[in-house]
Design goal:
The complex is a heterodimer of chains A (330) and B (643). Chain A is mainly alpha-helical. Helices cover 77% and strands 0% of the residues of chain A. With 643 residues, chain B is of the alpha/beta class. The chains are: A mainly alpha (330), B alpha/beta (643). Chains A and B meet through α9, α10 and α13 of A and α2 and α3 of B.
Chain lengths: 330, 643
C-alpha cells in the first residue's frame, strides 16, 4: 500500500512541476502576443495603435499584475477549467476545440496502441514457446525487417492501394461530409471505415517491438530455474508458459509501454496529418502553424497530464504484477 | 527391480555452429527405493546433465542420444509427454541448484505449492492449505511464511521451501542438484541434516548431486563419482572413505583434512579435464593420473565390480585381480600425491609472528545507517577490530557471511571509511585519504576476488588486462609492460606465457583464471594483497594448487596478505595468524594452529563442526603423508574382509 501512496505523491509532484513550467516557459519567450496579433491584422510595417493593442489585450484576457499574482490567477483558472481563447478559432475557447477532437484521438490511437500491445505480447510469447519453429523464424527475421519501414510510408502505401486504386475505403477524414452525425448504425460504420486505414497503419508496425521484446524476454525466462521447476512439477504446458514464463517476461514490456506513451504524440501528429483525421494531432499541427499559443500550451498540458496519468497507471500495474518493486530496497 | 535404472546413457549437446559436446557417455547405474545416493564430480563432469537427463529436463541443445532411463521399469526416454507429465512430481521431484531462482518471483509461496497440489492430488483447497503448513513445518519454517513472496525470504529459507515443495506429493525419488551451494556453511550443514532426517522418516530415494565430496560422503549411503562425462566409481560410502578405488576419488579425498589435526595436508590434482568435444578413446583421467600405466592411454577401462563397489580403472582392476589370486593387499592403492600436496610442513610458514609491520588496524568500527522514511536504523558491521599485517605473513580473517569480513577489506582498500578507529599504512592514515592520495595508496594494496569468472573483463585479452595496472601504476610504456606481463604470467605458473597472453578469459579454466587474477594483483608490486575467498569458487581438486601459489608469492615477495575465508581448513593451512569474526566482533585471535586446535569460543567450535569430517583409517593417510611412519597396514580392517 505504501508503494501506491508513494507513487501517487510522486505523480502530484510531477504534475505540479509540469503545470508550473507551462506557466514559466511562455513568459520567458520574447515578444508580446497582443502586439503580434495587431501587427498581423494591420500589416508588417504599419505603426501600432496603442488603443488597438489595449483592445486586443482585453479581448484575449492577457494577465496583468505582478508575477505571483499572475501565477495564482493562472492556477485558479486552471482549476476552473479555463484555458483561454484560441487565436485561430476566435472566439472559441480552447477547451471546446480540444473537447471536439480528443475523443477521435483517444478512440483511434489509444485503442490501437492497447490492441498492439496485447497482440504483440501474445504473439511474442507464442514465438518463444515454439522457438526455432517456422513461426518463430518468421517473427525474428521477417518482422524485424518490416519494423524498419517508416510508418508514414506504410500509411501512404495503404492509402494508395485501398483508397486510391481499389477505392474500398475513404481517403481521409474522420467521417463523411454527407453523414448525419447522429448516433446510428450507419454513422458508426462510417466512422469505422474512416478509422480502418489509420488504425491499420499503426497496427502493422506497432506490435513488432512488443513481439520482439516479449519473445526475447521469454526465451530467457523459459531457461530460468522457476520455469524448469514448473515443467518438472508436471503442470499443464499452458500453465507453465503463461503463469510462469510469460508472467515474468511481460514485466519489462509493461514498463516499456508506459515509457513509449511519451512518444505517441509525435506519431499522432503524423498519422492524423496524413489521413486528415480530426484529432488532437492535427489540431496541434494547426496550432503550431498559426502560432496559436493558448491552444498549443493547452494541448501540451493535456498531453503531459495524459502521459503522467498513464505512467501512474503503469506504475500501479507493475506494482500489482511484480511484488518485488513494492518492497523497495528494504 | 531397482527404482531407477540408467543404462548406457549418452547425452550430447549439438549445435550447428560448434562441434558437438559429448557431456555424458555410457553411464550405467541403479538406484533402489529408499536409498540415499550421492553423485560427485567437478564442474563440467556431466553430473548436472545426467540429473537433468533422468528428469527429462535437458535444456536444448542437450539431447539423450543413446541408452535408457527406466523408472519402476517404465522407459522414460520414449514415454509420451503427457504420460511423463502425469508421473512428474508424484513419482519423482527435484530441487535445483540456485535457491535464488527456483521459485517464481512474482507469486506467493503458497501458490507455488497450490498449483501442483491442486492438479495432482484429490485434496480440497482447505486440505491443501493445511498440508502446505505441515510441509513447511517439516523443513522448520513457520507456516505463516506461505503468505510471503520468495524475495522476502533468505537464501537458506528459499532452499528449505524448495525442499518442502519437492516433498509435497510424497514422491518416490528426489533429485537434488547442488542444493546448498552458495549458502552459508552453517546453514548448509543444517539443511543437509534436515534432508537426511526427512529421508529416513519418509523413505524416499535421493540422488544428491554435488561437487563437494565431503558433504556427500557425510550424508549418502553410496557415492557415484563422475569424471569427464563418465562414471568412474560407484561404491558404498564407508568403503570409499576407507579405500577409494579410483585414483580420481583418491585425489578428491586428498582435498579434505581435519583442520584441527596436528599435521594438516591437502592435495590437488594437477592438470585439467579433457575437452569433451573429442571423445577420449582411452581412460579420460590418464593424463592427470599419477598411477597411469601405458594401457590407460590406449584402452578405455570398463566399470567393473571390485572390492565392495565398482570402478573404471585398469590399475585398480589389475590390483583387484592380483588380490583375488594372492589374497594380500598392497599399500600402493591410490595415487601417490607427494608432489602435488600442500601442507603446513611444505608451506613457507614461519613459526613466530615476526616480520615488518606493513599495516595497522586500530580499534576500527563501522556502522551503517539505513534510512526508511523518517526512521533511521543503524547496523554495526564491524566492532572495535584491531590487527596488524606483516610483510611475508598471512593473516586469516574467518567468519560466515555477514560477519563483517568484506567490510574490513573495503576499509583497508579505502573504498569504505571507518566510523571510528584508524588504519595506518606506515605513516599514512588510510582512513583519511582522499582523491590522489587514495590512488597512490592503492598501488600498494591489491585485491584478489572471489569469482574468477566475473573478475576479468570478458572482452579483453589477458595481455591487455595485465598491462592496464602496469601502465597505470608502474608508469611503463607498452613495450615494457608487455615484457612484464610475460614475467608475471611465468610467476603465477602460466607457462609458456606466449600461449596465454593472447587468450580471452573465457578460454581459460577456473584455476587458470584465478592465476590471472593473482597476476593482476601482483602487477603494481604491492605491499599488501587482500584475497577475498580466492578458492571458494574453484573446483575442489585444484584449490590446494592456488593456495600453494599464494603461499609461495607471499613468502618470496614479502607481501603482507589478508586472507578472507569461511573455510577453517584453508585458513589453517595458509595463515600465520587467524582472527575469527562473528557479527563484527573479533571472538578469537591468535596463531593459526592455536586458534583452530584449541578454540575457546563457541562460535569457532561451531564453524569447525560444519566442516565435513571424513574419518579415514590411518593407512590411507599413511600412503601420502611424508612425515608419518609408513605403516604395513592392518589388512583385517580392509573392505575385502568385510564383504
Amino acid at each position: 500500500m505504501r508503494y501506491f501512496i508513494r507513487r501517487f505523491l510522486f505523480f502530484l509532484l510531477t504534475l505540479w512541476t509540469a503545470v508550473t513550467l507551462n506557466f514559466i516557459i511562455p513568459r520567458l519567450e520574447p515578444g508580446d502576443p497582443a502586439e503580434d496579433i495587431v501587427r498581423r491584422l494591420a500589416g508588417q510595417n504599419k505603426p501600432i495603435d496603442p488603443a488597438q493593442l489595449h483592445a486586443i489585450r482585453l479581448m484575449l484576457g492577457i494577465p496583468g499584475g505582478n508575477i505571483f499574482q499572475q501565477y495564482i490567477d493562472y492556477l485558479n483558472l486552471l482549476f476552473h477549467g479555463q484555458f483561454g481563447v484560441s487565436y485561430t478559432y476566435f472566439p472559441y475557447p480552447v477547451t471546446t476545440l480540444i473537447g471536439q477532437s480528443i475523443m477521435w484521438t483517444v478512440g483511434l490511437v489509444l485503442t490501437t496502441n492497447i490492441i498492439g500491445f496485447i497482440a504483440g505480447n501474445l504473439l511474442g510469447a507464442f514465438a518463444a514457446w515454439k522457438r526455432n519453429s517456422i513461426f518463430d523464424s518468421f517473427v525474428s527475421v521477417g518482422l524485424s525487417f518490416v519494423g524498419t519501414l517508416p510508418y508514414m510510408w506504410i500509411a501512404l502505401v495503404l492509402l494508395f492501394i485501398f483508397a486510391f486504386q481499389l477505392q474500398l475505403l475513404p481517403m481521409g477524414g474522420g467521417f463523411s461530409e454527407t453523414s448525419t452525425r447522429q448516433m446510428s448504425w450507419g454513422y458508426t460504420l462510417d466512422i469505422m471505415q474512416h478509422a480502418l486505414l489509420p488504425a491499420l497503419s499503426i497496427l502493422i508496425t506497432g506490435p513488432i517491438g512488443w513481439i520482439m521484446g516479449m519473445r526475447n524476454n521469454m526465451v530467457q525466462t523459459l531457461r530460468e530455474d522457476y520455469t524448469r521447476l514448473a515443467i518438472a512439477k508436471g503442470l499443464k504446458p499452458w500453465k507453465v508458459a503463461l503463469l510462469y514464463s510469460a508472467r515474468n517476461a511481460i514485466l519489462p514490456n509493461v514498463t516499456g509501454f508506459a515509457m513509449s506513451l511519451g512518444g505517441i504524440m509525435g506519431g499522432v501528429v503524423l498519422v492524423e496529418s496524413i489521413f486528415n483525421y480530426p484529432g488532437m494531432g492535427r489540431l496541434f499541427f494547426e496550432a503550431v502553424g498559426n502560432r496559436d499559443y493558448p491552444l498549443m500550451q493547452t494541448i501540451l498540458l493535456f498531453t503531459i497530464v495524459g502521459m503522467l496519468l498513464a505512467n501512474l497507471l503503469a506504475d500501479f500495474v507493475v506494482g500489482l504484477l511484480d511484488p518485488r518493486v513494492r518492497k523497495g530496497k528494504n | 527391480m531397482a527404482l531407477l535404472e540408467v543404462e548406457n546413457l549418452d547425452v550430447t549437446y549439438a549445435t550447428k555452429q560448434r562441434p558437438p559436446l559429448f557431456a555424458v557417455r555410457n553411464v550405467n547405474f541403479e538406484l533402489n527405493a529408499g536409498e540415499f545416493v550421492g553423485l560427485v564430480g567437478e564442474s563440467g563432469s556431466g553430473k548436472s546433465t545426467l540429473g537433468n537427463a533422468i528428469l527429462k529436463l535437458l535444456l536444448p541443445p542437450g539431447r539423450i542420444t543413446a541408452g535408457s532411463v527406466r523408472f519402476e521399469g517404465k522407459e522414460l526416454t520414449t514415454l509420451p509427454d503427457e504420460e511423463l507429465r502425469q508421473m512428474r512430481w508424484r513419482d519423482f521431484s527435484t530441487v535445483f541448484q540456485s535457491s535464488m531462482n527456483s521459485l517464481n518471483p512474482v507469486t506467493r509461496i503458497e501458490a507455488q505449492f497450490q498449483d501442483v497440489m491442486a492438479e495432482k492430488s484429490d485434496l480440497s483447497n482447505s486440505q491443501i492449505h493445511d498440508r502446505i503448513g505441515e510441509l513447511l513445518q517439516m523443513v522448520k519454517i513457520d507456516p505463516s511464511f506461505m503468505r510471503y513472496y520468495p524475495h522476502e525470504l533468505s537464501g537458506g529459507m528459499k532452499q528449505r521451501v524448495a525442499l518442502a515443495l519437492a516433498l509435497a506429493l510424497k514422491p518416490k525419488l528426489v533429485i537434488l542438484d547442488e542444493p546448498t551451494t552458495g549458502l552459508d556453511v552453517l546453514v548448509q550443514k543444517e539443511i543437509m541434516h534436515n534432508l537426511r532426517t526427512l529421508q529416513r522418516e519418509q523413505g524416499f530415494a535421493v540422488l544428491l548431486i554435488s561437487h563437494d565430496l565431503g558433504t556427500v560422503l557425510e550424508v549418502s549411503d553410496r557415492v557415484l563419482v563422475m569424471y569427464a562425462g563418465e562414471m568412474v566409481e560407484d561404491a558404498p560410502t564407508h568403503g570409499m572413505l576407507k579405500h577409494p578405488i579410483h585414483p580420481y576419488t583418491h585425489g578428491l579425498l586428498g582435498s579434505y583434512a581435519d583442520p584441527a589435526a596436528e599435521e594438516v595436508e591437502i592435495s590437488y590434482i594437477p592438470g585439467r579435464p579433457p575437452d569433451l568435444t573429442r571423445v577420449p578413446k582411452a581412460c579420460p583421467y590418464a593424463p592427470r593420473c599419477p598411477e597411469a600405466i601405458p594401457l590407460c592411454r590406449q584402452a578405455k577401462p570398463q566399470l567393473l565390480p571390485m572390492w565392495d563397489g565398482k570402478a573404471a580403472c585398469h590399475v585398480a582392476q589389475m590390483q583387484w585381480n592380483d588380490e583375488q589370486h594372492n589374497h594380500t593387499r598392497h599399500s600402493e592403492e591410490g595415487p601417490k600425491l607427494l608432489d602435488a600436496a600442500f601442507s603446513e610442513a611444505t608451506s613457507h610458514k614461519a613459526m613466530k609472528l615476526e616480520g615488518e609491520e606493513v599495516l595497522r588496524v586500530e580499534n576500527v568500527s563501522k556502522t551503517y545507517q539505513r534510512r526508511a522514511g523518517f526512521k533511521t536504523t543503524s547496523m554495526n558491521a564491524v566492532n572495535d577490530v584491531s590487527f596488524n599485517l606483516r610483510s611475508g605473513k598471512v593473516t586469516g580473517l574467518v567468519g560466515q557471511s555477514g560477519s563483517g569480513k568484506t567490510t574490513i577489506a573495503r576499509m583497508i582498500t579505502g573504498t569504505e571509511y571507518p566510523t571510528s578507529g584508524a588504519i595506518w599504512f606506515g605513516e599514512t592514515r588510510v582512513d583519511k585519504l582522499k582523491g590522489r592520495g587514495i590512488h597512490n595508496y592503492r598501488k600498494h594494496v591489491q585485491y584478489v576476488f572471489q569469482d574468477p569468472f566475473s573478475a576479468l573483463n570478458p572482452v579483453h585479452t589477458i595481455q591487455y588486462l595485465l598491462m592496464r595496472p602496469l601502465m597505470n601504476y608502474g608508469k611503463l610504456n607498452a613495450a615494457q609492460a608487455r615484457q612484464k606481463v610475460r614475467e608475471l604470467l611465468e610467476t603465477v605458473g602460466l607457462t609458456p606465457a606466449e600461449q596465454f597472453e593472447t587468450k580471452m578469459a573465457h578460454q581459460l579454466s577456473g584455476g587458470q583464471r584465478q592465476r590471472v587474477v593473482v597476476a593482476r594483483a601482483l602487477a603494481p608490486d604491492p605491499d599488501i594483497i587482500i584475497a577475498d575467498e580466492p578458492i571458494s569458487m574453484l573446483d575442489v581438486s585444484i584449490r590446494a594448487e592456488i593456495l600453494q601459489l599464494l603461499d609461495k608469492l607471499v613468502r618470496e615477495r614479502k607481501i603482507a596478505m589478508l586472507y578472507i575465508t569461511h573455510d577453517l581448513l584453508s585458513a589453517r593451512l595458509l595463515s600465520d595468524e587467524i582472527l575469527v569474526l562473528n557479527q563484527g566482533h573479533v571472538v578469537e585471535q591468535g596463531a593459526a594452529k592455536t586458534v583452530i586446535r584449541q578454540p575457546t569460543n563457541e562460535y569457532t567450535q561451531l564453524l569447525l563442526e560444519a566442516i565435513p569430517r571424513l574419518e579415514r583409517p590411518d593407512h590411507v593417510r599413511a600412503s601420502y603423508v611424508p612425515t608419518a611412519e609408513p605403516t604395513k597396514v592392518q589388512v583385517d580392517a580392509s573392505p575385502v574382509s568385510e564383504e
